[in-house]
Amino acid sequence: MKRGILVFLLLFMAMPPTSRSVTITDFPQKSQSAPVTQLLTALNNEINPKALDLAVRGYYNLKRQGLIRREGIVTLIDFDKPSVSERLYIIDVDNGKILHSALVAHGKGSGENVATRFSNKPGSNKSSVGFYLTENTYNGKNGYSLVLKGLDHGINDKAERRSIVIHGADYVSRDYINKHGRLGRSQGCPALSMESYQQVINLIKEGTCLFIYHNGRDYASRSGVLHPGASFRSGRTDNPA
User: Fold this and answer.
1) Domain boundaries, the chain
2) Class for domain 15-222, per CATH?
3) Strands (E) located in 113-225
4) Which of 12, 105, 176, 206 is paired with 147 by a 20 to 30 Å CA distance?
């Protein structure tokens, strides 16, 4: 038996690299995000590895709970980046590819060019970090829009009550940046450009995972999505980054 295993390992090591491609399912559940992180780091070093790792970890936790209705897609919004940078990424998790990247606005209560303050409170005009599930689309005062359901208790679970949705806005554009030095800001919604919002909504609507990241305070340790089954004190919900 030992000799057979040794022969197999020697044959495996002798295979050319193209014959030994690695997929996510080759890894234990705890490290499923590793190959995706490696692939995306190679494809685009502008993606924050920590943000990506948390996004993919949360995606797999939600998938195991049966909450993801459309598998294989994670949308990452990195609010550590300034508004003048593309900071929304739609990621093909199964193949380690970036499907789309775009400018995205944060709430006017969260800051100027860089978002630094976050809240779950209605009327705060601040963005909320954490994990969301995309829901249905509708036509409202901002046109074609996508409902977001906040999944992190005490962090973003009032998103629907706050009418936090993805929609298009004329203050999200390179022209606006050239005139004002930053994007315009929303009332808390992750607003997109008029050129890209319909494409983005159609790519991610109806049951995909979306993660808004900011490297502040203690969000990762308090997330019920990242730590399923853990019990957290609700505590203060303002600025839970």
Assistant:
1) 15-222
2) mainly beta
3) 130-140, 143-150, 165-166, 209-213
4) 176
